[in-house]
Design a protein that fits this description.
single chain; alpha/beta; TIM Barrel; 2 domains; eight-stranded parallel β-barrel; two-stranded antiparallel sheet
């Protein structure tokens, strides 16, 4: 993005390229998998902005359930679509049954659908944790080990690395991240990422970056040099530099911070290259980016749903409107109309009257966005937290978990 830039006084510590198995990525930044967000279109948009900043990171797909992927439904296959020039092609899998997860990994690697597989052990939403999945699953250490080991074995023959993304644990009384990190390292994963909150924290409060430092120490003791990635409260490139400096992590995972700000990847590329520039777009530049986003979404959906791809794209962009326009003065009526847009032509007509020369609003456009809320009680299967082993009741709960989770 062309745009006004502003300097920063922060400089990175010594930062090396991110190495995930055979993949050497110059910019140690990962786009977090986010349901309903990180589809093929948004990943491409973020990659374009990273490239404009002279960088290249890892951009992970939306989560897809292992069982749904094996059933090969149109929606599941849409979730793992990648651009021809996208590399590495990163897919995040959710699963609770070791055999099903391994079979899904085998499908991805044998059919050449992925260059990197990430396993989801961090989802905190109730429909996942109440079945023992997501951030609740690492509490059952043998089940966790079996899923990770099976996935690594399934991918190994094709040179495809497997990584793990997780949270600190269920709550502060049931932390799992240090044990899970050591287990994952011992079973051969290529990297471990930690969202430094518990499931009970959800997206509230402040991420516990000190936990990332503790995980780095624990994983290093198991497998020296294995990359550990930090996630949580990276709202700016300067936040990313601080996280690396404070925790010693090998790279950062960016989720909510890039919502409505794909140019954050330009900033991150510049920051990790030691450059001070930061993008501060005028409203006109934001609108150009939004238009590009709608175009890419239209292309993405038309490939799967040729009869109504443009309408699906316009419905998809609606959730992004408030994030893109955060801090800019556009008026309630315009925001409301964009929230109901159904075509590219309608989008163009609505934004035509806006003042593209309106400058970047500064602080009001920055900071937190996306999910927040307060801490909450985590719903898990009855008796789940009684011990770390999986009993018959727990096994019955997880056997139904993939069937009850959307995402594919």
């Amino acid at each position: 993005m062309a745009g006004v830039t502003q300097p920063t006084t922060l400089r990175p510590a010594t930062v090396r390229p991110l190495v995930i198995g055979p993949h050497r990525v110059p910019t140690p930044v990962v786009l977090a998998p986010m349901a309903g967000i990180t589809n093929q279109a948004y990943r491409r948009l973020c990659r374009e902005h990273a490239a404009a900043g002279g960088g290249r990171g890892v951009f992970v797909s939306e989560m897809v359930t292992s069982r749904a992927l094996l059933e090969r439904g149109d929606e599941s296959l849409r979730l793992v679509r990648h651009d021809p020039d996208e590399f590495p092609r990163s897919v995040q899998l959710y699963g609770v049954d070791p055999g099903t997860v391994a079979a899904a990994v085998r499908m991805l690697v044998e059919e050449g659908m992925a260059d990197h597989v990430d396993l989801n052990f961090g989802c905190p939403v109730p429909k996942v944790t109440r079945k023992g999945g997501g951030s609740a699953l690492p509490w059952k250490t043998q089940l966790f080990r079996a899923i990770v080991a099976g996935a690594v074995r399934a991918a190994a023959g094709h040179g495809v690395p497997v990584t793990v993304k997780m949270r600190k644990g269920v709550d502060d009384d049931h932390l799992t991240y240090l044990d899970a990190g050591r287990i994952a390292a011992a079973e051969g994963v290529a990297a471990v990422a930690l969202h430094a909150r518990t499931a009970a924290d959800y997206y509230s409060g402040t991420a516990d970056w000190a936990a990332i430092a503790r995980l780095k120490e624990a994983v290093d003791a198991e497998v020296a040099g294995l990359p550990v990635l930090g996630n949580g409260d990276v709202w700016s490139a300067d936040d990313a530099l601080r996280m690396v400096a404070e925790t010693g992590c090998d790279g950062v995972v960016v989720g909510r911070g890039c919502l409505g700000r794909p140019w954050l990847f330009h900033d991150l590329a510049a920051a990790f290259a030691g450059r001070a520039e930061r993008v501060t777009p005028m409203l006109g530049e934001v609108l150009v980016t939004m238009r590009r986003h709608v175009e890419l979404l239209t292309e993405h959906y038309l490939a799967v749903y040729p009869r109504d791809g443009e309408l699906r794209a316009c419905r998809d962009i609606r959730k992004h409107i408030a994030w893109y326009l955060k801090g800019y003065v556009v008026g309630h009526e315009v925001r409301a109309r964009l929230g109901l847009v159904e075509s590219l032509a309608a989008f163009d007509a609505i934004v035509a009257g806006l003042d593209g020369a309106q400058p970047h609003p500064g602080e009001p456009a920055e900071g937190p966005r996306g999910r927040s809320g307060s801490a909450r009680t985590v719903h898990v299967p009855d008796g789940w937290l009684a011990d770390r082993e999986l009993d018959a009741a727990g096994a019955a709960a997880v056997s139904a978990a993939e069937l009850s989770v959307s995402g594919g």
